[in-house]
Structures are given as structure tokens and as C-alpha cells.
Amino acid sequence: MTKMRARKTLDPATVEGKSDDPQIEDEPTFETIPRRTVTQDAIAQIRNLVASGGLMPGQKLPPERRLAEMLGVSRPTLREAIGALTAMGILESQQGSGTYVAKLSAELLTHPLSLILATNGAALQDLFEVRLMLEVGAARWAAIRIGDPDLRRLRELSTEARHQISNVETFVDLDIGFHRVIHLASGNPVLAAVMESISILSQESRMHTARRRDVREGTCKEHHNIYNALEAHDPDVAAEAMKTHLQHVRAGV
Which of 104, 124, 156 is a domain's end point? Predict the structure, then answer.
């Protein structure tokens, strides 16, 4: 493939050394696509640029004519590719402004899993198994690595959860926040990112189990036990406390 940089593309606005597009110097590098399955190749190249960071969330794509020239495809082919990427949620079109990389979120990335959970009741139990496998390990590592700021934040979340025990929705948000601090305190950013997706997926199940006040009261006590183990920097006790907590929550599903 022949590499082409946006700043070297000639058009009427640049013939005299000027450009009416202030973003031209910041445009990413695209490659001209050989003529075969050009639409799919255009889709793949733009998607790969987004995945690799060559195109950032919120970044504007070059104008249609320029981008078509850079990719070596026709404008109808480019429109088809952009339409497909927009349907995927990777790009978004803003009327009168242009096409931008969507601000990709965990909700979008986990959409296929959300569909599975919505159509398969057994998948919820599978989700709890994943939480057991990962969160017990997260608690173990957090007990070794957690610092005073995170411990202070866990105390604040626990206190607020007790005060909000009658407000199910707020209580669930605080519960998710408590677990999030532990995921981050594990010191493993990949684990934290995976658990963030799982937290979004499991929010519905949390709302279901938290409808019972006795479950919410049990969660407060179990969070307190987890906190004590983390404060003592005891990985075995922290892992066991997290396992006990998740098993109790799972039993309420």
C-alpha cells in the first residue's frame, strides 16, 4: 500500500500554500487501498486507526473529498464505509460540522455481552462466576498495594452507603464505587478496565439483589470486613472476605 499524509494532499485550498482547514496539520496518516473489497478495507483501516489510537475519540475526520483521495476510494464507497462505522457506533456524524470519532464507552464495548445477558438468564450466573474469579484476585492484590487515599475513599463510600441504605439506586452506585476503588487499588490497569465493563453489565443484577433491605444491610457488613482486611494488608483475609461477599450476593439473584 502507498502511504499518503494528509498535509501533502493538494486541493484548491492548498495550491497557494494556504488551507481553509486548521486541522490539516493534525490529520492522521492513511494508506491508499488497492481495488478489491474496497469498502471493507476502508472500514477496517479506519477502525484499526481508532483501536490503535491513530484516531482519537472526539477527533474530526478529514473532509469527505480529501479522505476519499487519501484512501484511494470513490466518495460513494467512502460514504458506505462511514455509514457502516456510524452504525457500529465507532463514528458519529454531526450535522453541518462533519464526521467525528465517537467517544467510545464501556457501554458500547460491552454491547454484545449486554445482549447475551438480556436473552440468556443463565449468563447472569456466568457473570457472577467471572466476578468471583477476578474480584477475589483484585482484593488479594489490593491488600498488598492499597494506600491511605484509597482506604480513606473506601471509608467514605461505606459511611455514605449506610446513610443511603433506604435509597436503592444510590446504594447501588455506592456499591459499584466501593468495588471500583478496590479494582484500581490492585495496581493492574487491565484488570481495572475489565472490571469496569463487568460493573456496567452487572448493574442490573445489583439493582435486583439490592431491592431487599437485608441484602443491603449484609452488603454493608461485608464491605466493612473487606475494608478491615485491606487496612490490615492481609491478602488472604481480603480474598476470603470478597469471596464471601460475592457468594452472598449471588445467592440473592
Answer: 104
